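Structure (tokenized):
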């Protein structure tokens, strides 16, 4: 099971993205490879909390607040549910998506995400009569290693819309 976040390309203002790059670079200078598991965890925590806060501020175009755009993303995620992967909980926020999924044997998370992003970028751009990059190239993914981890991610997905001050246009939540 994976917890994945992918976001629109303009979801973080340029100044904040630069600040994040600078801090990561300073951290890499202060720590030498190979990194210990504790150091890797520290590196990822360095930015993850702030990035989550920034995403919840709904910076950028927030194209996913448009219900037809959110429906395109939901449709893409649901299209191979049960075949390539099994979706658990998910929420589509105005500028990012959180999803819990288990990848079926013979398929790779990277390919699934690339498929979602490619299809939805074309469909949303066509719907909005626009061109260009829609999604940030990189996604955040985390392996769910325990029932406690799973519950933490489920709670995060459930609470994200309220924490961001709005209810996401679309979501699927399971009772815990």
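Design, position by position:
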């Amino acid at each position: 099971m994976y917890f994945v976040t992918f976001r629109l390309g303009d979801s973080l203002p340029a100044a904040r993205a630069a600040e994040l790059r600078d801090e990561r670079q300073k951290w890499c200078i202060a720590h030498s490879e190979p990194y210990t598991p504790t150091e890797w965890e520290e590196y990822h925590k360095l930015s993850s909390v702030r990035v989550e806060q920034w995403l919840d501020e709904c910076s950028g175009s927030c194209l996913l607040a448009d219900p037809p755009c959110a429906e395109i993303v939901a449709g893409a995620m649901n299209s191979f549910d049960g075949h390539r992967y099994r979706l658990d909980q998910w929420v589509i926020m105005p500028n990012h998506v959180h999803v819990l999924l288990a990848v079926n044997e013979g398929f790779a998370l990277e390919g699934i995400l690339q498929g979602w992003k490619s299809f939805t970028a074309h469909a949303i751009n066509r719907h909005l009569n626009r061109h260009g990059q829609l999604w940030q190239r990189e996604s955040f993914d985390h392996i769910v290693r325990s029932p406690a981890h799973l519950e933490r991610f489920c709670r995060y997905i459930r609470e994200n819309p309220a924490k961001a001050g709005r209810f996401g246009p679309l979501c699927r939540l399971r009772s815990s």
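Reviewer-requested clarification: Residues 37-56 form the longest helix (20 residues). The chain has a mean pLDDT of 88.
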